Amino acid sequence: MRNDNYTLRSIFLLERRAEDDIIRIFLEKRFFVKEFFMDKATTIFLLIGSNMFMTYAWYGHLKDFKGKPLILAIVVSWGVAFLEYCLQVPANRIGYNFFSLSQLKILQEIITISVFAVFSIVYMKQQIKLDYLWAAMCIIGAAFFMFRSIQPLG
To answer: 100 phi and psi, to 5 degrees?
Structure first.
């Protein structure tokens, strides 16, 4: 009877260790996913949002305030730019934990040109030109060189 209890106890301990290993692996994977999505992706999403405000602040008045007094366009654009900073500052603070300053800048430029392209075509009704493709290729090249050898900070 003692051997049976010992065997059952051993099996229970082995099962418990296996469960602990599964839980540990799950938590490691979960924290990796959480780290990426709550930090790096948060940076990207905040930068996209801030660029939407920034692009409108810089260029939206050309359409929406065309016949309005300049001071009104300035005040409205300034208010929109404030919203942009409310997203951009936290994005850079979060992102600086994972990206170098140069990588943050290139990431910002990629997002800026992407948001601007959509804004200019959809909102401002601008024509697409082949030169936009070439400019985008240059930015993709810049991103390649900035992110090809990511070194940990610190």
So the answer is: -75, 165
Number of other residues whose CB lies within 10 A of the CB of residue 65: 15
Amino acid identity at 115: V
Q: Domain coordinates of the chain in residue numbers?
A: 47-147
The CA distance from 109 to 26, in Å, is 36
State the helix-helix crossing angle for 130-147 and 101-118, rounded to 10 degrees. 160
- Residue 146: the pLDDT is 78
pLDDT at 154: 53
Residue pLDDT, tens place only, 42-101: 999 999 999 999 999 999 999 999 999 999 999 999 999 999 999 999 999 999 988 889
Token pair in block for residue 127: 């024509």
> pTM here?
0.68
